[in-house]
TrEMBL record:
Transmembrane segments: none annotated. The keyword GTP-binding applies. InterPro entries: EFTu-like_2, P-loop_NTPase, TRAFAC_GTPase_members, Transl_B-barrel_sf. It is found in: Cytoplasm. One of its GO terms (cellular component) is cytoplasm. This is Elongation factor 1 alpha. GO terms for molecular function: GTP binding; translation elongation factor activity. The gene is EF1a. It comes from the Eukaryota. Residues 99-164 form the Translation elongation factor EFTu-like domain. Keywords: Cytoplasm, Elongation factor, GTP-binding, Nucleotide-binding, Protein biosynthesis.
Length: 168
């Protein structure tokens, strides 16, 4: 519950996060005790010196007192759906009765059934028959989605991990 110790840790961590490329002004520092639940969900009376945290970032300012406030202030990453499709393959499966199913995470763009994709570096072009995530068919997959997609007339031997699917 020591303010001096908190400031010492805050200074050390700020210096470290600056070295790895983050702006310390955009990182909230919250003194907590997981053991007693201090400043986790509600402001603690055991830390009378602590007035709260405030951060500045290009999207605006945010402030609060507790860890849950700091977690709620985290902004979700942007989903670049307007950019060209880029989907690095993590694996390629042959599924009986379905065919060749490349699997990967959509980084940019959108993939949906009917999309014509080209795989780099092999320059192989084909059409997407279906897109699935967790065994459920999708109308479209957006950045951040880990998907499997069925491709027409392509052998498993023609594709491999590391290839990148892009829209043609």
């Amino acid at each position: 519950y020591s303010e001096a110790r908190f400031e010492e840790i805050k200074k050390e961590v700020s210096s470290y996060i600056k070295k790895i490329g983050y702006n310390p002004v955009a990182v909230p520092f919250v003194p907590i005790s997981g053991w007693h639940g201090d400043n986790m969900l509600e402001a603690s009376t055991n830390l009378p010196w602590y007035k709260g945290w405030a951060i500045e970032r290009k999207e605006g300012k945010a402030d609060g007192k507790t860890l849950i406030d700091a977690l709620d202030a985290i902004l979700p990453p942007s989903r670049p759906t307007e950019k060209p499709l880029r989907l690095p393959l993590q694996d390629v499966y042959k599924i009986g009765g379905i065919g060749t199913v490349p699997v990967g995470r959509v980084e940019t763009g959108v993939i949906k059934p009917g999309t014509v994709v080209t795989f780099a570096p092999c320059n192989l072009t084909t059409e997407v028959k279906s897109v699935e995530m967790h065994h459920e068919a999708l109308e479209e997959a957006v950045p951040g989605d880990n998907v499997g997609f069925n491709v027409k007339n392509v052998s498993v031997k023609e594709l491999r991990r590391g290839y990148v699917a892009g829209d043609s």
